[in-house]
Amino acid sequence: MALVELERDRVAEEVKSRAETGESPIQILEECRRGMTIVGERFQKGDYFLAELMLSGEIFKGAMAILEPYLAKVGPSKPLGKVVLATLQGDIHDLGKNIVAIMLKAQGFEVHDLGVDVAPGLVVEKVRETAPDFVGFSVLITTAFDSMKQAAAMLREAGLREQFKLMIGGGVTTTVVKDHVGADFQTTDATEGVAYCLDVMRGG
After folding, report:
1. For residue 186, which of 36, 95, 127, 178 is within the disulfide window of CB 3.0 to 4.6 Å?
2. What residue ranges do the domains of the chain occupy?
3. What is the pLDDT of residues 51-75, one digit of tens each?
4. CB–CB of 92/39 below 8 Å?
5. 110-113 vs 134-138, strand pairing mode
């Protein structure tokens, strides 16, 4: 796959041409996501370094930008549910969060993405404003654990915590971190996170 070999132009051309010919944008996105997984495995083994990892992230973002309008047409007109996503204070990684956001939109969710290094207070404001069904915290470095716990505590204090399911995701998360934060769900896989949201909205 061109993404695994870090061929930026080829990835953009392939994604664009396949989307234009009517191929499923969700399928193309899933292939790109698998490519990112392989890049991550090569990084873990020491075959790729940080520069390659960062380049792959930029290539993936470019592919997502091409696919977004096609994905928007796939989803139903009435939102399936609402989701607030954020990478909290102390962390500026957004690739995993962006993948989840795109995949949720493709399934018909209304997504409010607050970005990175987000103050817990901003999460409370957004939840009060949008009344979401889910709040998702993405994290790749452990320094953001305290911000996640603080945000969850502030949501409880504001009387908002019972209104939604709290999800956490990212490579450093575990069930122990889930319990520490007080979340309902934890995953290291974007597809699992989307499946969880779909399951909850279908009454599972």
Report:
1. 178
2. 8-74, 82-201
3. 888 898 889 989 989 998 898 787 6
4. no
5. unpaired
